[in-house]
Amino acid sequence: MGNENHTENPFEEKVRVRVCGILQENGKTLLLKHDSIGPAGYLWSPPGGGVEFGESLAETLKKEFLEETNLTVAVGDYLFANEFIGKRHHAIELFFGVTRISGELKLGSDPELAPEEQILSEAKFLSADEMTNLPADAIHNAFHTADARDKITELRGLITFKH
User: Which of 49, 56, 66, 137 has its CB surrounded by the most CB atoms within 10 Å?
Assistant: First the structure.
């Protein structure tokens, strides 16, 4: 019998394969604000989500963009892999460039979480300066590897971040 005060988190204590998309328009990068994540209490991260059995990476990314941002996207080039190893989370994230086909940006939700447990709180295109002005622990760790925050599409290879 588990701890009754602990809500089970479907993302903890297992390796999760995720796919993420980098959408840049007019010199800005689309990021989603996730509440209750990380040391800052929130985290800005590109849209994406967990790959389900039988679902291709491109299918997953298109589905996640539509669910989270109301945007239909075309999946472009594979960019890089990011491995995050934390105390309770281990994620392998595959990043792709994407382009908007249609839709107006509107914050959606994560169907893996109940309505009262949603953590997405904002969807916004951020400039390099806006991303640089965020606290370091409030933006996805992959942005720390790029020469500049708006140069994330130039990253290649594997990034490993152990926390």
Answer: 49
Question: What gap in Å lies between CA 59 and CA 75, rounded to an integer?
Answer: 9
CA–CA gap between residue 162 and residue 142 (Å, rounded)? 12
Cα distance between residue 12 and residue 3, in whole Å: 15
With a CB cutoff of 8 Å and minimum separation 6, the contacts of 100 are 23, 25, 71, 72, 73
The CA–CA distances, whole Å, from 140 to 47, 55, 136, 145, 159 equal 11, 25, 9, 10, 12
pLDDT under 50: residue ranges of the chain: 1-7
